[in-house]
Amino acid sequence: MGLLSVEALGGLLTGFGVILTPENLYLCFLGSLIGTLVGVLPGVGPLAALALLLPITFTLSPVGGMVMLASIFYGAMYGGSTTSILLNIPGEAASVVTCIDGHQMAKQGRAGAALGIAAIGSFVAGTLGVIVMTFFAPAIAAVAIRFGPPENFALMVLGVVCTLFMITGSPVKGVLMMALGFLTAAIGIDVVNGRERFTFGSVNLSAGIELLAVVIGLFGLTEVLSNVEKVVKSTVVTDRIRGLWPSLADWRASWRPMLRGSGLGFVLGLVPGGGPVTASFMSYALEKRISAHPERFGKGAVEGVAGPESANNAAVAGSIIPVLSLGIPGNPVTALLLGALVIQGIQPGPLFITQRPDLFWGIVASMYVGNVFLLLLNLPLVGLWAQLLRVPYRVLFPVVLLLSMVGTYSANKNVFDLWVMLGFGIAGYVLHKLEYDLAPFVIAFVLAPLLEQSLRQSLAMSPDGAMIFVQRPGTALMLVASAVLVALMFRRKQKKSGGDL
Amino acid sequence: MIERTLNLFWILLGAAAAAYAWTLGIVGPSGPESGLFPFISALIILGAGVVLLLQRSGDAAVPDFPRGAALGRVLGVVAGLAFMAVSIPYLGFAVSGFITMIILLRAVEKSGWLFSIALAVASVAVVVGLFGHVLGMTLPRGPWGF
């Protein structure tokens, strides 16, 4: 462990060497800026923004591209609180819970304190999360490096099952979406033997379904279609925001929730299916439960801002660990980050840290730097972000759609992808209305090639067929854990619906 | 009704995909074949579709689909994007993007002509400038060379 710590510190120094160049610092700043903007503006989530901006990273170095994408992800967590506190409209999903007490504080004339605590809590949690990540990710990779195809298969199954376990809707619909993701990913040429699958003679389908078209359609277009249903009148913040530095009483009330939120968020970020949204809700529930005065919650309790805002930022660091050290994404945003690396010809996994130390440690170091940028962007410039809320959605959405079209087209320079994007957008909109969770689809779609490869390699190397998954203790343990989670998932659903699935 | 129809669709999709995957081969002399993974996925879709179809009707989601003007706005967006996908090969990105923006702003958002044209020109110019020139991406051009 001591050796690992020394290695981690050495790696971190390498990372700072990589990130502290004008180009990478600029990209980190740009990502932080875009992330904050995305977080502030309601109707544009971090996933849609990442998908739209992914094509830009094709022209950048892998380090620069990944640094920018990662900073958009955690930048959105910072920016989301601004809209929640000032307008009672969450800028993105992980800031929904901040509306409750954050907006109450704003109504009591304490918007500055709420925004300050949110920014400082985000900074504290983001930095603590990256510190733990610095030492934790290499340790996980050191264990996973011994994994063979059966273990990799079982680990990915466990990851997908964890995602299903965490979804709030129907588990059957979640399982169906996951299988649909696997099936969609199978379209194209089988890389093992060059055989075409589900292409029906179409040249466009033989290259497979483009990840960008899927993500932009399912998350970007679906979000726009859901938003344009209603005419949203833009609310303008006219009051000057004062007192951004919290009072001593605010500090006293907030430091413990910040630390608890950081710990809880980090752990929930690690779990596939967890991530920032779950972390913020769990943190709010925890703070309310352990508070000596739970009746203050909902009426402007600063703990209700400090805990969730810390939790969602720590969850970002937590959720990046499984992607970089195991190659397993836990939510759609990290699935897209994984996809971005694969597009660049890089396969994250246990060997990633040793094969591409510049990239891994560059990303880690950029998160330290990015958190500082974000604190500076979100505290002194909060008034500027508030003014951006003047941009009405009717101006925003046509531009988002135009970017969606360019983003989708740019992947393969193929108009067919535009139809795929449109098809997935309409399908996503209808499925969303019917309470289908779209996250398992994207995670399964991204994981499918690796999962299939591991399954086929495992069966090919086994003289006893599928028994190989039982004969190896690590594999058996992970598959049993998956089976237990599936059983618990359906049991929970049965309890909810009074006996029926 | 929509949910029931969709569940039936899942069953048909799962069955068709499983049947097709079977023709690709499941397990051969050299190990697993191309059809194994999609076959398993298709069976899961089929099974989940059956379970959803057999659910009590009270458990089915009651979708809140838009009606009237709201439906018109959603269809307007879809129509605008469909127009763009159809017209890009013939008109190029800049012109089809401009017309799409006008459709979205005029038909969906009921914006004024002047505002719509100004925003459409500005947005298309920024996107073409950023992607086409700064990032060096080849955007489809129309017969006018842009």
Protein model, in words:
The complex is a heterodimer of chains A (501) and B (146). With 501 residues, chain A is mainly alpha-helical. Chain A has one domain (2-232, 240-497). Chain A is 74% helix and 1% strand. Chain A has 22 helices and two strands. Chain A has a two-stranded antiparallel ribbon with strand order 1-2. In chain A, α1 (2-19) packs across α6 (111-144) and α4 crosses α5 (98-107). In chain A, 60% of the residues are buried. Chain B has 146 residues and is mainly α. Chain B has two domains: 2-59; 68-134, no CATH class. In chain B, 72% of the residues lie in helices and 3% in strands. Chain B contains four helices and two strands, in the order αββααα. Chain B has helices at residues 2-24, 36-54, 68-108, 113-134, and strands at 27-28, 31-32. A two-stranded antiparallel sheet of chain B has the order 1-2. Chain B is flat. The chains are: A mainly alpha (501), B mainly alpha (146). At the A-B interface, α8, α10, α18, α19 and α20 of A face α1, β2, α2, α3 and α4 of B.
Quick structural overview:
The complex is a heterodimer of chains A (501) and B (146). Chain A is mainly α and 501 residues long. Chain A has one domain.
Percent helix of chain B, as a range, is over 70%
Catalogue the unreliable spans of chain B. none
Which term fits the overall shape of chain A? globular
Q: How far apart are the termini of chain A?
A: 46 Å
One letter per element, helices H and strands E, the order of chain A comes to HHHHHHHHEEHHHHHHHHHHHHHH
Helix content of chain A: over 70%
Portion of residues in beta strands of chain B equals under 5%
Helix-strand pattern of chain B = HEEHHH
- Rounded to the nearest angstrom, the radius of gyration of chain B is 23 Å
Number of spatially distinct domains of chain A:
1
What is the strand tally of chain A?
Answer: 2
Class by SSE composition of chain A: mainly alpha
Largest interface in this structure:
A-B, 59 and 68 residues
Give the biggest sheet of chain A.
2 strands, antiparallel
